[in-house]
Amino acid sequence: MRNVETRQMTTEPEAIEYMLTAARMDERRNRAEVMAARLDILAEKIAIHSLSREQAAEMVRDEAMNIMHQAQELH
């Protein structure tokens, strides 16, 4: 059995708002990094396989659909 110390904290509404804003900004940064990595992978595939404009556009559309499906799963 662990010793658990419980403390009551009183926080100002401004402090809570600041923490929420910081968490949101961190999440946005993380999502931006993931998106940048996905775009980099797409660009690399297009370059390696010397895809035509039509093929590249189709690959981007497919990735957009994947992102949309992932977003819908989160709701």
TrEMBL record:
<protein>
    <submittedName>
        <fullName>DUF2732 domain-containing protein</fullName>
    </submittedName>
</protein>
<dbReference type="Pfam" id="PF10809">
    <property type="entry name" value="DUF2732"/>
</dbReference>
<dbReference type="InterPro" id="IPR020126">
    <property type="entry name" value="DUF2732"/>
</dbReference>
